[in-house]
Amino acid sequence: MSAPTSKVLSGQEVAQHSSRESCWIIVHGKVYDVTDFLDDHPGGSRIILKYAGKDATAEYDPIHPPNAITDNLPPEKHLGSVDPESVLKVKVEVSDEEKARMERMSKRPPLSEILNLHDFEAIAKVVMPEKAWAYYSSAADDEITIRENHAAYHRVWFRPRILRDVTTVDYSTKILGHASSMPMYITATALGKLGHPDGELNLTRAAAKHGVIQMIPTLASCSFDDIVDATKPGQVQFLQLYVNKDRAITKKLVQHAEQRGIKGLFITVDAPQLGRREKDMRMKFEAEDPAEVTENQQQDRVDRSQGAARAISSFIDPGLDWKDIPWFQSITKMPLILKGVQCWEDALEAYDCGLAGVVLSNHGGRQLDFARSGLEILHEVVHELSARRGLSFPNEKFQLFVDGGVRRATDVLKAVALGATAVGVGRPFLYAFSSYGQEGVDKALQILHDEFEMNMRLIGARTIAEVVPSMVDASSLSAHIVAVPGDRLYNSNYESMQHARLREVKAKM
């Protein structure tokens, strides 16, 4: 909580504290002394020092929840309000690149011309700020796994049933006991405000309208409470959890989430260290630094060259272990799901620990390159847990989820046929709101509704319960070299990785 204060400071007074020795910043009209916090800032001291003595709100907002600064600074560092008329403004010069981007933004096609989820990605790629695109689209190392996540769906083929009355089809389902209009959910993705000023709230509002469940990310740009407050009565949300090295912080967040009505806790287990996301790293997530920052660079303990992902995630505990599971079970009654399980052995252990389910996932291809797709893992898990524990899937008591690479309702139906309760979709919704705001997410969800209705009819399934293993041929799923026609839409959106390059060389003449 912020310390009660009525003190009003002038911008001139704040401007005097613009060095490493005394560093004050303004965020949302409040003044904070961050001198002692410089070297503890997860993003390093350089970016703070750039705004020393100035208003840092514009830089702060996209990558922090509103309460981040108040939660991390002791009350005595909350110095008071600032007289807005006296604040030294950071001069914002619109670059030629930004002018060109805004011109492209004005030439977006109308939503009526957006026909599929690939289209949102194609538009987002050319209208988003470069650092935002780099963060959202980047993946690990050579980006083999991110592409495999999508390609894996191409190795599963339908075996449709005919002459069934499909006048009416119902593709609704239940996820952890809660109704969903489709067997998919909006999975957690960080830093929504990089793509749109309303950030994750775009997803919350669209999820309510379309009857799907949103998973709130730990690293949301909007505050957790703002996202929950934006729900409609009865709207269901889950929480994705990065486990903090300080377990007291984790316990507080988990129990607060439960009190706010969150219906499922998805504990991320595939990120003891963040993968190398080289597109993001090349962006370096920072503008040119002032002399004050450059001079003190050697004192900056956080490597900013690792990009946005590394800058915001240094709190994640690499020591998370199976022995921590009973502790989680002791602090909450929410269903616990492990997010990022990548082999049947760990899925079996999760079942034996009494957990509610697992997400078979490789973190959207952003962690270990050459990790297998969630779809391939699903096929393996269903087989092994059936053989070893007599389980059949989908299973209400131990639910299997998959995420990564989904672009069509047919992808989701393939996963459901293979035993998934539901499938998480992430990046396509980021691209939808980055290019068209909440209306984009509405359109994306409507596209999926329409695709589900059509494809349920075409495979001969009247309900999700009728989408069964015999409706697909997955015999080639684990064969990683298979001749399948290329997906031109996906491949045309994929932006090739770049080598290091010479800086621009000016001609002598």
From TrEMBL:
EC number: 1.1.2.3
One term under GO cellular component: mitochondrial intermembrane space
Cited InterPro entries: Aldolase_TIM, Cyt_B5-like_heme/steroid-bd, Cyt_B5-like_heme/steroid_sf, Cyt_B5_heme-BS, FMN-dep_DH, FMN_HAD, FMN_hydac_DH_AS, L-MDH/L-LDH_FMN-bd
Residue ranges annotated for the FMN hydroxy acid dehydrogenase domain, each copy included: 109-477
A Gene Ontology biological process term: lactate metabolic process
This protein's record includes keyword Heme: yes
Principal location: mitochondrion
Pfam families assigned to the protein according to its UniProt record, in alphabetical order: Cyt-b5 (PF00173), FMN_dh (PF01070)
Domain of life: Eukaryota
Positions of transmembrane segments: none
Reactions catalysed, as given in the entry: (S)-lactate + 2 Fe(III)-[cytochrome c] = 2 Fe(II)-[cytochrome c] + pyruvate + 2 H(+)
Cofactor: FMN; heme b
GO MF annotations, alphabetized: heme binding; L-lactate dehydrogenase (cytochrome) activity; metal ion binding
Domain Cytochrome b5 heme-binding residue range list: 6-83
Subunit composition and interactions: Homotetramer.
Family, as annotated: In the C-terminal section; belongs to the FMN-dependent alpha-hydroxy acid dehydrogenase family. In the N-terminal section; belongs to the cytochrome b5 family.
Protein name per Swiss-Prot or TrEMBL: L-lactate dehydrogenase (cytochrome)
Source organism of this protein record: Obba rivulosa
Classification lineage: Eukaryota, Fungi, Dikarya, Basidiomycota, Agaricomycotina
